[in-house]
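Diaminopimelate decarboxylase: structure tokens wanted.
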Amino acid sequence: MQSKDLLQVAEQFGSPVYVYDAEKIQSQYNRLSKAFSKVNKLRINYAVKALSNVAILQLLREMGSGLDTVSIQEVMLGLHAGYEPEKIFYTPNGVSLEEIEEVNAMGVQINIDNLSILEQFGTKYPEVPVCIRINPHVMAGGNANISVGHIDSKFGISVHQLPHLVRIVENTKMNIVGIHMHTGSDILDIEVFLYAAEILFDAAKSFKSLEFLDFGSGFKVPYKKDDIETDIEELGKKLSKRFNAFCIEYGKELTLIFEPGKFLVSEAGFFLAKVNVVKQTTSTVFAGIDSGFNHLIRPMLYGSQHQIENISNPKGKERFYSVVGYICETDTFANNRRISEIKEGDILCFRNAGAYCFSMASNYNSRYKPAEVLWMNGEGHLIRAHESFEDILRNQVQLPHLVETV
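Answer:
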């Protein structure tokens, strides 16, 4: 998308607002598919938690994607968006057996990540096709918060517990159709990913009726100009060759599954906010916007960097600004960042705002959540309206005897 398109969206729908470029999502989906074109059976399951707007799910459904879900609510969103149950993969963590049973009744693929639930579920439903999440004990990911395959992670069944796992499967006569891993997000070294894949291949040999291997995702995208990213093409070349060889060794053609979230939608997303005030102090120039970490928390939560551009004055002289929000606590998006000269009323654009941005928004300070717009075929389509005061009150219940005194 170009600056003029983004400014058009801000003018038409107001700010703050999230904007998603449908063409970029399509190109990323095609790029991943092409990288693994040597694999006969490839399935891409979009990770709903990255961006769960129903219109985005429907867009990806039309591309042929399945879904990776982590909650019963995400499963319900997928069904609402028109996905067939068998195209939805459910990988919860720490949920009750009751939730898993409820999801199972919906007909989706169950993925279990702990021995206790595995044994309970297998005892009650031995005929149900189940996938098992393995923890390969491989450290990968941009930081500790998004690295989920290491030895201290709460996710998955330790690969060192494989004998115990196999004993449960044998005792319950469970129907194990797949095994799964996810090492973390923002993976740079594909050799680490390939190393973890070998652990999954070794674990797969313990199960004789597999239909697929799920390698998760976590591919890094560039956050700024000339930033490094996961070499998808190189990974595709090396992993496809190894996967095809393993299928021959296993004696059966399996399906290779990935669960990209950030890779598909991060670069497609833009967050637009208006500058409320430019504040000069003795040491800093603050650009205060009509937003805060209630709308975009990643810089404060993860220390993540989002490129910020003044699309109202893209060719202006660059100056140093600290971009801050309107929340009653420190909510600094950027410190001393070089940005084209900012004036009150200008629109700032945060790039890479497609993944884990709106989906982590809140009503902190009783602020409204922003609108979402899908840019498709040269036109902006509203896919979520700005919240209103009625939305804030919707699920609150007043005590009758107190209402009478107001």
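The mean pLDDT is 93. The domain at 269-353+370-389 is CATH 2.40.37.10 (Lyase, Ornithine Decarboxylase; Chain A, domain 1).

Cheers.
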